[in-house]
Amino acid sequence: MQTTAVNGANYLTYQGKYKGLLGWILSTDHKRIGLLYLYSIATMFTTGVLLGLAMKFELLAPGKTIMEAQTYNSVFTVHGVIMIFMVVVPGLPAVFGNLMLPIMIGARDVAFPKLNLLSWWLYVAGVFLVLAALLFGKGSPDTGWTFYAPYSFKTGTNMLPAIFGAFVLGFSSILTGLNFLVTIHRLRCKGMKWMKLPLFVWTLYGTAWIQLLATPVVGITLVLVALERVFGVGIFDPALGGDPILYQHLFWIYSHPAVYIMILPAMGAISEIIPTFAQKHIFGYKALIASTMAIAFVGYLVWGHHMFTAGMSGTAQYYFSLLTFIVAIPSAIKVFNWISTLYKGSINVQTPFYWAVSFIFVFMIGGLSGLVLGALATDVHVHDTAFVVAHFHYIVFGGTGFAFFAAIHYWFPKIFGRMYDKAWANTGWLVFFVGFLALYTPMFYLGMMGMPRRYYDYLEEFHGGNILSTFGSWVLVTGFIIIVVNLVRSARKGAPAEANPWHGRTLEWTVPSPPPVLNFDEEPVLGEKDGPYNYE
Amino acid sequence: MSGEKHHIVPYRLYFVVLIALLALTFASVWITSIELRDYTVAAALLFAIVKSYLVLNYFMHLKYDKPYIKIMVGFVFAIFLVMIVITFLDYLYR
């Protein structure tokens, strides 16, 4: 089932109706749109990293170091808005979903290519709206990325463009989810039955449902905040008979499932990488599918664990705590299956593999620390402390971020048709990993000792931990620079890559690197014995 | 996709559904003139549910779709219902 590039042109060099830049920004080719997302998201990630670096500089010593308190409030808000709405939520689905999903199911494109391009344009529009909120008007938003009421409609900062920007970004996410759902249902090639789908596709499927069902809730919520600011309608404002906790319910009804939008495709990418580099059938294929759908479903029902100290009823607290512990089970099943896949595998240690195993390591620490926050008694102690920041970054940055780097190193030769410098890639991973541990691990300790988050100042007793954390941020950024320089350079000047350098078994490895414009010369047909992880 | 049969719905049925929707809209306005106290919102939601049912089934052709599409839509409404119930675990016991 090997496809050759008989038509000559690949998607990178193809010249269609439009030339040059227009040939990219008006292209409906899923692979080009995937790359547009990659470049956009990489730009925003770099911006977010710089803001994070600025925060760590500020926390290097107690008192004012490089910025005022109000500036710090704006910086952590903008860091959060950029990283959540522009990087990790679209992250893996928009980049690798677009680049790989149609090829992995044997299709020539997504079901609605024009809608796909519209999704990217909406993403760009959302980005510019949020950036406008930063640069113009009455000062950058300072509410935190959660836009909590009542402060979000009381603050004099530039909230409306930021809210509208997040709303537009939500639309982009919904359209991508809809597109992927229809694509997976309708465009699978012959023989590609549901139980033959690669696990990355399954996780995109679960994610698409969340994108489609949960995102409108936050869209409406943000519209209500805007109405509250402009007309004072009294939905969330207690002075007008409203309920600020209702805002938190509505916000987290989206934003907790959004965590699974971030992490499910990350888990999918890891589920592709582990069997490829173990050269072994994945352990518990059906259990991994079931756990994906269980996470997607139960993930809808646990949002209240963000609100344990907000004044919610005791009954609701018990309920949310119980379900939070239940949602940990499918995640643990995945970790168990990945490790079991490695057992007695013919392990080929390469850069994507390093990222994948370090993902498992940090994800486990992040997940287990989440149980501390899911238990009512311990949550009261560490709520709104640096512990939460550490947990969150271990899950979202250590989870989604590491999986993103794993995925880019895994699919890079397929996407660009060139191989990166492996020695520099491994060095980048090591420096990044050490920096990550040094940056976030002290925050667990600082939080348990009572250091609150979102303050530009702290007590002298927290100084040591903060020095280590800031030092870690410098190491992490050094690793990030090594990785980016290596990948950018290799995309242009790397050695030509084989069609299947890792000996993978999913369909994307049967097409040339980089793939032809229409992916396949002929629609592939899967036989009874074909499957995504048949290594035996 | 194009090889599948599409159910052709007669215009008369669309018209009947349209009349029903308009009648239900007037009814949902009219019901507010009756003092139902706590049940006012419930009454409005009841009319909205019936109207949604008609739109989904006839205008969006759910009635003529495959069972798995119906299951998916049903699943969405089930999720929505569960969210409402869970939210009220807070409001009713606060």
What would you say about this model in short?
The complex is a heterodimer of chains A (536) and B (94). Chain A has one domain (22-510): Cytochrome C Oxidase, Chain A. Chain A is 66% helix and 1% strand.
Mean pLDDT of chain A: 94
Q: What is the helix fraction of residues of chain B, given as a range?
A: 55-70%
| CATH topology assignment of chain A | Cytochrome C Oxidase, Chain A
Give the count of helical stretches of chain A.
Answer: 16
- Main pleated-sheet profile of chain A: 2 strands, antiparallel
CATH architectural designation of chain A? Up-down Bundle
Work out the count of structural domains of chain B. Answer: 1
Structural class by SSE content of chain A: mainly alpha
The overall average pLDDT of chain B, rounded, is: 89
Span of the ends, CA to CA of chain A? 17 Å
What's the helix count of chain B? 3
Rg of chain B (C-alpha, Å)? 17 Å
Query: Number of folding domains of chain A?
Result: 1
- Residue fraction in strands of chain A: under 5%
- CATH class designation of chain A: Mainly Alpha
Shape of chain A: globular
What structural class is derived from the secondary structure elements of chain B? mainly alpha
Question: Termini distance of chain B?
Answer: 51 Å
Helix content of chain A: 55-70%
Number of strands of chain A: 2
Structural description of this entry:
- The complex is a heterodimer of chains A (536) and B (94).
- By secondary structure, chain A is mostly helical.
- Chain A has a single domain, classed as Cytochrome c oxidase-like, subunit I domain (Cytochrome C Oxidase, Chain A).
- In chain A, 66% of the residues lie in helices and 1% in strands.
- Chain A has 16 helices and two strands.
- In chain A, strands 1-2 form a two-stranded antiparallel sheet.
- In chain A, helix 7 packs antiparallel against helix 8 (199-231) and helix 9 (244-278) packs antiparallel against helix 12 (351-374).
- The longest helix of chain A has 35 residues, at 244-278.
- Mean pLDDT of chain A is 94; it is low at 1-7.
- With 94 residues, chain B is mainly α.
- Chain B has one domain.
- Helix content of chain B is 69%, strand content 0%.
- Chain B is built from three helices and no strands.
- In chain B, helix 1 runs antiparallel to helix 2.
- The longest helix of chain B has 25 residues, at 67-91.
- At the A-B interface, helix 9 and helix 11 of A face helix 3 of B.
- Chain A: Belongs to the heme-copper respiratory oxidase family.
